[in-house]
Task: structure prediction
Amino acid sequence: SAQLARIAEVLQGQRDAYYDIALQNSGTTRNDSATDIDGAIYTLSQYANWGAKLGATRWLADGGLVKLGKDGTFQSGHFLVPQRGIALFINAFNFPAWGLWEKAAPALLSGVPVVVKPATATAWLTQRMVADVIAAGVLPAGALSIVCGRSEGLIETLQPFDLVSFTGSADTARTIRTHENLLRHAIRLNAETDSLNSALLGPDAAPGSDAFALMVKEVVREMTVKSGQKCTAIRRVLVPQAHAAAATEAISAALAAVKVGNPRNESVRMGALASRAQLAAVREGLGVLGREAQLAWAGNESDLVDIDPKVAACVMPHLFRVDDGDASELVHDVEVFGPVATIVPYRDADHAFALARRGFGSLVASMFSDDADFIARAAIEMAHAHGRLHVVTPAVGKSHTGHGNVMPMSLHGGPGRAGGGEELGGLRALGFYHQRSAVQAPAEVLARLVEGAAPWQGGAG
Result:
């Protein structure tokens, strides 16, 4: 935990350099870069604090002891011990800072050395951070390594006690999951992939209400922060049929006020996509989504601020709409990884829940309502298909942490399409880097083990 705190100090001291790299390499505004860079430092600091509370222990006790015989002399207990392998991180391009440290914090706290393979397009920031930490002598030699460029041979060399944590597309996750070496050695894999996340406007949230305004604000923020290049970004906006036109109009008006272009220009709120290749992918995705959805609003490319269209990777926000969410397929299946979302009307609450589940597993869904009964029912109906539910009422309009912000206290991950994995969630994240083992032994032996352990308590921080 002390080493994690020291890493956070090293990174804090180089923030300005990291912001400059993000500007040059990722084309993000300073506010958007903060989500990545400051989010990484904050997450490290949180795990340093949680680790300090565990004390100087090297294993965890999971639950109490259970008698295995009538006289109680022979008992069973469960303990978690760190895996004795390496943790290989294969990361996505959109969060080169946070994507490393949100994984590395619980891994290093568990005593598991890390090898990170960042996405090539934005590896500059990851490499610089790793180099700074190694140069500062914070960690033992070999505790942190980085491999830039192509990944051939990395997975082939993994051994049975190694671990893989992947963030990226569902297609790439499927390739890794079925790799012969992972299958042969049953190597543990955690995958966090793209998903069709939803924002759900409650039936009570009519135009003019505070809940309606909060929904509009959050949808626009999620479409434009990091140019919509977030695995948690809102892709589907589920609204009552009676309010679909008003929601479309309000979101469109708010998007029209967003300045897009050169992130060096102080008037610009939304910068560029990560690369020209990503720009091409977004344009292709817009064409695919447009086969089924109607374009409700799109900014004019001529309004891009201070850019050379032959060089820049900028795209204006695009808002689509479908009239029949049941008949639609692409809107529930195709994620355009950019500033793109689709309005999907629903008839009643049950229909809304069914449409949300059409994503077949999502990282997060947010709900905007002032009806406690509806919110409670929605949470129970939608939890099985979502890793996180974010509820916004007028009472928390100014204090909620945001649909797309991944807080280290809460789980990050989701079932099905979202990868089936779990990250963060306080000390729950340590579970991936530990092996749970049952120890059946005389009571005095188990008492000795419990005495030297920190209580697991389900991983609560």
User: Anything to note?
Assistant: The radius of gyration is 23 Å.
